[in-house]
């Protein structure tokens, strides 16, 4: 009888552990979805900043190489890499 009670106690403990782990998995899944959503928002925000910034805009090939604006374009290109 004692062995049977011990086994029942072990099964109950394992069931509780499984329940706790299942709750943790659900919690982590929810957090993961939240973080994915935040990452999408931040990614879009960064894309908008990059597209609005003149530093990341492509340079025009019609500018003369000796002009001061060409030097600025070279600086812009070096910042992209």
From TrEMBL:
Keyword check for DNA-binding: no
Compositionally biased residues, Low complexity: 58-81
Location(s), subcellular: Cytoplasm, Cytosol; Golgi apparatus membrane; Golgi apparatus, trans-Golgi network
UniProt cross-references to Pfam families, sorted A to Z: DUF2205
Keyword Membrane: yes
Membrane-related topology note: Peripheral membrane protein
GO CC annotations, alphabetized: cytosol; Golgi membrane; trans-Golgi network
Entry-linked PANTHER family: GEO08385P1, SHORT COILED COIL PROTEIN
Reported function: Positive regulator of amino acid starvation-induced autophagy.
Protein name: Short coiled-coil protein A-like protein
């Amino acid at each position: 009888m004692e062995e049977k009670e011990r086994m029942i106690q072990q099964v109950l403990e394992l069931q509780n552990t499984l329940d706790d782990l299942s709750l943790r998995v659900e919690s982590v899944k929810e957090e993961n979805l939240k973080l994915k959503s935040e990452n999408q928002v931040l990614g879009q925000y960064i894309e908008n900043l990059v597209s609005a910034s003149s530093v990341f805009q492509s340079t025009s090939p019609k500018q003369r190489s000796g002009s001061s604006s060409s030097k600025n374009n070279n600086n812009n290109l070096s910042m992209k890499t």
